[in-house]
Amino acid sequence: MAGHDDDENKQALDGDDESLLEAQSHLWNLTFGFINSMSLKCAIQLGIPDVIHKHGQPITLSQLITSLNLPISKTDWLRRLLRLLVHSGLLAKTIINNNSSNYDNDDDYYLYHLTPTSSILVKEKPNNVSPFVLTMLDSALVSPWHVLSDAFKCNGVEPAFNVAHATGLWETSEELNKDFNEAMASDAKFLMDIVVSNWGDDVFGGLKSIVDVGGGSGAAAFIIAKRFPQIKCTVLDLPRVVASMSKSEMVEFVQGDMFEFIPPAHAVLLKV
Ligand SMILES: C[S@@+](CC[C@H](N)C(=O)[O-])C[C@H]1O[C@@H](n2cnc3c(N)ncnc32)[C@H](O)[C@@H]1O
């Protein structure tokens, strides 16, 4: 209350009530955890990392609204989204005008920066993993989580994806199959570039052949084949995945079921 010291104001919380409030706050964090994922998805779809990257320097809210071609009426929305993104570590913000007294108006008060996390979501960068994030957060892949308890109750081994879609992940629509392959390729490229440049000689140096089992569109195999042309690289994947691949001199694609046959090679690569 006005005029009272903080200490005078403070009423000790009953120990039980304090734990109850902590429990509620923990529960709220768990309940609304999806907001982090969905605001990440929204940021990629709007192109926020791309626009900040293209801008070449940290950006204000008003510059961001303009560069994203969003209606000016959405300024408040964007301000709130940016707060979430800063909170989750996807963006960072710094104060540009220390003398400003207008704390409520972020428009010219803060500069928004990319963080190491959002830097790998810039579409024009070779290590861009946006396709992976967008596909993993696609409603087709999120909806199985909504029916996880139903999947538990089914008397069988049917995955939650099948319960949600009445078909398996590997038999699903062409569109999701294509997106999924692109998603995994972006992840494989990101990771294998680092693996090959740091530990490539140790891991792959002495090999004459390698088969990437469930290797999708061959992103990992192409990176290995480029760095180690002496290694015969083979990718085994399901017929529908291999059918969409064009023939290559660097990597041989073999269609089949890994549970029935794996092409012989000195080493097997299994990456999920
Ligand atoms: C999670 S993805 C991993 C793709 C790739 N290894 C990567 O990490 O980027 C799994 C892959 O296994 C393939 N796959 C699933 N079942 C398979 C099977 N029975 N035999 C061969 N490949 C299979 C899928 O088509 C898909 O490309």
UniProtKB/TrEMBL annotation:
<dbReference type="Pfam" id="PF00891">
    <property type="entry name" value="Methyltransf_2"/>
</dbReference>
<protein>
    <recommendedName>
        <fullName>O-methyltransferase</fullName>
    </recommendedName>
</protein>
<feature type="domain" description="O-methyltransferase C-terminal">
    <location>
        <begin position="145"/>
        <end position="271"/>
    </location>
</feature>
<dbReference type="InterPro" id="IPR001077">
    <property type="entry name" value="COMT_C"/>
</dbReference>
<dbReference type="InterPro" id="IPR029063">
    <property type="entry name" value="SAM-dependent_MTases_sf"/>
</dbReference>
<keyword id="KW-0489">Methyltransferase</keyword>
<dbReference type="InterPro" id="IPR012967">
    <property type="entry name" value="COMT_dimerisation"/>
</dbReference>
<dbReference type="InterPro" id="IPR036388">
    <property type="entry name" value="WH-like_DNA-bd_sf"/>
</dbReference>
<keyword id="KW-0808">Transferase</keyword>
<keyword id="KW-0949">S-adenosyl-L-methionine</keyword>
<dbReference type="GO" id="GO:0032259">
    <property type="term" value="P:methylation"/>
</dbReference>
<dbReference type="GO" id="GO:0008171">
    <property type="term" value="F:O-methyltransferase activity"/>
</dbReference>
<dbReference type="Pfam" id="PF08100">
    <property type="entry name" value="Dimerisation"/>
</dbReference>
<dbReference type="InterPro" id="IPR016461">
    <property type="entry name" value="COMT-like"/>
</dbReference>
<dbReference type="InterPro" id="IPR036390">
    <property type="entry name" value="WH_DNA-bd_sf"/>
</dbReference>
<feature type="domain" description="O-methyltransferase dimerisation">
    <location>
        <begin position="28"/>
        <end position="123"/>
    </location>
</feature>
<dbReference type="GO" id="GO:0046983">
    <property type="term" value="F:protein dimerization activity"/>
</dbReference>
